[in-house]
């Protein structure tokens, strides 16, 4: 038989302060204890992102392109070209050569597109100065 006060916060009968309830046997000290808040385990996952510098990006890009062109042994050549034309341009060319069907044409297209294109300074449209 459970006492009516069992498990409740009030209604116990403590004959002695700090003693046990004469009905249910719970100790007064236990009752008066404030429930401790559960500690939230903070699982701080440190995202370990590898620090990719610009050089490693270019290297991986060079690796992709040279392999895509079937010329992984010419890595250094491709690396030099890509460093010269820049990462963005290399990505552009890479996307263009992906559309070509044959491996041979890929390398040719890459070499063609990566050539220096001197921007034409058209003087056909001179600015007028007032
Ligand atoms: Zn009680």
Count of alpha and pi helical runs: 5
Order of helices and strands: HHHHH
End-to-end separation: 105 Å
Helix content: 40-55%
Shape: rod-shaped
Q: What is the average per-residue confidence, as pLDDT, rounded to a whole number?
A: 80
Oligomer type = single chain
Question: Structural class, judged by helices and strands?
Answer: mainly alpha
Bound heterogens, unique: zinc ion
Compute the number of strand runs: 0
Feature tags:
single chain; 130 residues; mainly alpha; rod-shaped; binds zinc ion
Sequence-ordered SSE layout with sheet pairings:
Blueprint: H1 28-32, H2 54-68, H3 75-85, H4 87-97, H5 103-113
Helix pairs in contact: 2-3, 2-4, 4-5
Zinc ion (ZN) binds next to loops.
């Amino acid at each position: 038989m459970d006492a009516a006060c069992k498990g409740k916060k009030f209604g116990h009968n403590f004959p002695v302060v700090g003693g046990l309830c004469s009905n249910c046997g719970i100790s007064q000290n236990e009752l008066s204890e404030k429930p401790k808040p559960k500690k939230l385990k903070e699982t701080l996952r440190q995202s370990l992102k590898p620090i990719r510098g610009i050089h490693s990006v270019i290297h991986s890009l060079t690796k992709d392109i040279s392999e895509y062109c079937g010329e992984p042994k010419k890595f250094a050549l491709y690396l030099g070209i890509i460093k010269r034309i820049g990462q963005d341009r290399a990505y552009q060319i890479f996307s263009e050569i992906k559309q070509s069907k044959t491996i041979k044409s890929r390398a040719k297209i890459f070499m063609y597109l990566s050539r220096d294109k001197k921007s034409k300074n058209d003087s056909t449209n001179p600015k007028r100065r007032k």
